[in-house]
Amino acid sequence: MARNFKAILSYDGSPYSGWQIQPGRTTIQGKLAGVIKNITGEQVLPQGSGRTDTGVHALGQVASFSLESPIPVANLHTALNDKLPESIRVMTLEEVPPEFHARHSSKSKTYLYRIYREAICPPFLADFVSHVSWPLDEAGMIRAASIVTGEHDFTSFTATDPEKTARDNKERFPVNDNVRTIYSSTWERRGEELVYIVRGNGFLHHMVRNLVGTFLLVGKETYSPADVERILAAKNRSQAGPTAAANGLYLVKVEY
């Protein structure tokens, strides 16, 4: 009888073309599937809680997959980390009920975005933060972030690829429904870094990075915090700010 597994993964997204397997590209999903086949001989496609983009990192990505293999969980966990590259770690592995699905069963996700604020970014941080050294109205950014909490249509903050957006929406939401609920949206100072933390019931393609790009324009005083309300109401991607760099973004936690 097949066993269903839930894995929590942490990875450095810098060397990878995102989560989703793609022909001719190195991806997290592809690496995990290849290692599982190497260990068990079974061809499976692990399902992730979401598709992190090229260069995006994860502290708590969740993947699920089923196997016929009788290998004990602890042994499989050890074998996966032995075979995976050091940039991908399986933090936990457990058997779960057959109906569990990493994407369809999720209730909320938390993302974090790191901005390094000093004049010079240390080279060993460059792949893991976005470097913004110019003056920012951080108090204004904090006010702007609070405006997006609650249930809203986030069309202004989604990617402009309608085909991909429709595909992503089918996973848990009706097609072309860009309404999401944001439970919390905050900026906080952590030493040399300004960090954005957002938790919601789901996120559109590039939504967090587009929010960050818009908040940075508030920080530069190109926009006011009140402009964020206008941008939300416009339901038009061209009204919002640019997409922030991928390397500052982390999938922190998925809740079920």
Describe the structure.
The chain is of the alpha+beta class. The chain has 2 domains: 3-96, Alpha-Beta Plaits, CATH 3.30.70.580; 108-255, Pseudouridine synthase I, catalytic domain, C-terminal subdomain (Alpha-Beta Plaits), CATH 3.30.70. It is built from 6 helices and 10 strands; from the N terminus they run βαββαβββαβαββααβ. It has helices at 28-40, 73-83, 138-147, 162-170, 207-219, 225-234, and strands at residues 3-11, 47-48, 57-67, 88-96, 108-116, 130-131, 150-153, 179-190, 193-200, 249-255. Strands 1, 2, 3, 4, 5, 6, 7, 8, 9 and 10 form a 10-stranded mixed sheet that branches. It is globular and about 60 Å long. 34% of the residues are buried. The model has no long low-confidence stretch (mean pLDDT 95).
* Residues in helices, as a percent range: 25-40%
CATH topology of the largest domain: Alpha-Beta Plaits
Assigned CATH superfamily of the largest domain:
Pseudouridine synthase I, catalytic domain, C-terminal subdomain
Computed Rg: 19 Å
How many helices? The count is 6
* Rounded mean pLDDT score: 95
Major β-sheet profile? 10 strands, mixed
How many strand units?
A: 10
Low-confidence sequence ranges:
none
Quickly count the domains. Answer: 2
Find the structural class using helix and strand composition: alpha+beta
Looking at the overall shape, the CATH architecture of the largest domain is 2-Layer Sandwich
The secondary-structure element order is EHEEHEEEHEHEEHHE
- Cα shape: globular
Regarding quaternary structure, what we see is single chain
Strand content: 25-35%
CATH class of the largest domain reads Alpha Beta
- What is the CA-CA span between the terminal residues? 25 Å
